[in-house]
Amino acid sequence: MTGVPDILWLEEIRKEDIPSVGGKGASLGEMASIGLPVPPAFVVTSQAFRRFLIRTGLEEPLYSILESLDVDDNDALESAAKKAKDLIHEAKMPDDLKSEIRIAYEKLSRTGDIVAARSSATAEDLPDASFAGQQETVLNIKGIDNLLKAVQVCWASLYGARAIYYRVKQGFDHHSVNIAVVVQQLIPSEKAGVMFTSHPVTGESLSIIEGSWGLGESVVSGTVSPDNYVFDRRLERITDRLISLKNVEIVADGNYGTITREVEKSRQEQQVLSDDEVRRLATYGIVSEEHYGVPQDMEWGIVGDKIYILQSRPVTTIKGPAAVKKDTKAGSAETVILQGQGASPGIACGPVIIVDDVRDIGKVKEGDIMVTRMTNPDMVPAMRKVAGIVTDEGGMTCHAAIVSRELGTPAVVGTRKATQVLTDGQVISVDGEKGLIYDGVIAQAAPEPGAAQVQASFAPSKIITATSVKVNVSMPEAAGRAAATGADGVGLLRIEHLILGLNKTPEWYIRNQREEDFISELMGGIKVVLDAFPGKPVWVRTLDAPTDEFRNMQGGETEPIEHNPMLGWRGIRRDLQRPAQFKLQIDTFKRLWDLGYDNLGIMFPMVSHPREFIQAKELFRQAGVDVENVDLGVMIEIPASVVLIEDFIKAGIKFASFGTNDLIQYTIAIDRNNENVTDMYWPRHPAVLALIDHAIQACRKGGVEISICGQAGSDPDMVTWLVEHGITSVSSNIDAIAKIRETVARTEQRIILDAARRPYGC
Ligand code: PEP
Ligand code: MG
């Protein structure tokens, strides 16, 4: 046989192979190649399917069925789909192809003979067209005859009514779409679900994980409302969790199929995932997102303590929802009658249409609010018409959520009882951002509030402020989103994440003479951020990892055990005592300056005395850096550095930035990570404000740029105070930029107006 073979094993596949193995197959091959724990699989290629069509003489009859079909005519669509599918089901698979599949199945069966056959269409899973759920998956297949039948079922699903409809509406040509079938060992998941590696609506670096008992189909299809975990990738901890009532699970029925059964009471409201499982899943998510360079939508399963990654594909693009205003009579507005999860932003108003199943979709009219237990792909034509969607079941990643985001239709999912509480014709408002359903038409049913918010956070702003508004970045892959905010530069690039991600301490690289590896990793990461901010300052902070964070890394065995790492061997004090470690960083920066990145500035953390700055600068000079012509500055995190600020200015700092996270804890003796004293952690404590004010005034007098990069710089009240007191720049979290820029602009305008209104001479 010439050309692409009928069968390809995962190890032979890369992401470029979509034309042969489809999006799903290519993604699995690529995932396996980067070390994600993917269950073993082979793919019946799309070429095998083409050859099947040719050798069985099906091509012509198939295309004549689809030619000139009006997909908006439901009856014609259903009948064409049935005819096309029957042709595929009934055709006899050529013997040589059967035998190739048999041999591959026997090989796969050596580690487990229950497999799943998953359609992998060449137009599926691609970045701009979420074909979620459009093609067939057959689970729990045992035995070659069942597998061969399942392969034909998958092939036929390329011609299901919903697939034909979706393809036509998305502009795909029937001749150019193809289908491959992934045959994969079935993982008898005890718990399973989905994950977005970044927030699917706002794009923040939050991994959103949804999970439930049994196989993942219950989450994907929306049969249950899953548990929802939010893992903040910057803070590296779970910041939110919603434990749902999971009353059913889908499991293998022991007879090559699956059954949906009731979950016993004791597990229904039990948390599905341990915190450690959430963290491990999020880590796999980061590996995948970093590899592909865009946020991923992943499926996973867990058996015992083994995690399997079943799928990873780009998160579908999020469009702003269409403005929806209906000419309806106002009801008892502003009364929240139901609550769920806001799955697709925007507000829509309209009359309810309850859709029990696909037979009801004929009743759906333009501008209705579709209310259903859970949408499925057959409902897509109706979903295109409606103004809003409400479901009883599902979470952020269910079918209704994915499709409504793609359609730009406001949606609230997982209300538990919308189909029981709402009635046909009742006028309601759906807030797809907050997850609320109101009776009647709400007053603020303005166009596109959800979209406005998303855009406000991420679109470059036209507001010009005298105070620069910069952004904090910790991981290079966030650079694109950070730059998309239109920020005036990066006020803090923490390199710890980059270095901790290497899983080896800088000392390890030195001990093993692998300095070049370290430099090239660090340089690569910083360069991504510099490239995203051409011509804008990027302040990179030298290493500030406490010893406890290094200890578990390779080379971390020699880290000292410290009672209080916060006050320990970290920041500039460690670098000055370990010049070889510091030199690795200096050499990296020097190479970047030599490459022409003159927007790079370097900031030293945890300085307590000007001599530390002077020593650091001297080490830069000794390494060949032209120290008078590059920007070297300090973090103000220790009260001592405020007291000695004038001496720092005399020592030649070009800028200073308040690290309020530490400045607060060291000023009022409140451990920032100790939950027993959290309520005493007071950013606007008068002593903290007095220190900040003192440093601002000294820096302004000395002509030194003064900024903030601690969390307080993302708080509008604090930023108002800082601008009033003369700060020259602020650096905030990506998601806070829009709000902070507006705060800065308003404060500046008020200051100007107040001055203008003051009587002459005052
Ligand atoms: C700070 O202390 O405010 C700061 C930005 O540094 P980190 O949070 O990394 O200690
Ligand atoms: Mg700090």
Overview of this structure, please?
This protein is an alpha/beta fold. Among the domains are: about 5-185, Dna Ligase, domain 1; about 190-315, D-amino Acid Aminotransferase, Chain A, domain 1 (2-Layer Sandwich); about 330-445, Phosphohistidine domain (Glucose Oxidase, domain 1). About 35% of the residues lie in helices and about 20% in strands. The strands form five sheets. Strands 14-21-20-16-17-18-19-15 form an eight-stranded mixed sheet. Helix 4 (about 75-90) packs antiparallel against helix 6 (about 145-155) and helix 18 crosses helix 21 (about 580-595). The longest helix is centred in the last third of the chain and has 21 residues, at about 735-755. The protein is globular and about 85 Å long. Residues about 125-135, about 315-335 and about 445-460 have low confidence and may be disordered. It binds phosphoenolpyruvate and magnesium ion (MG). Phosphoenolpyruvate binds near residues 492, 659, 660 and 709.
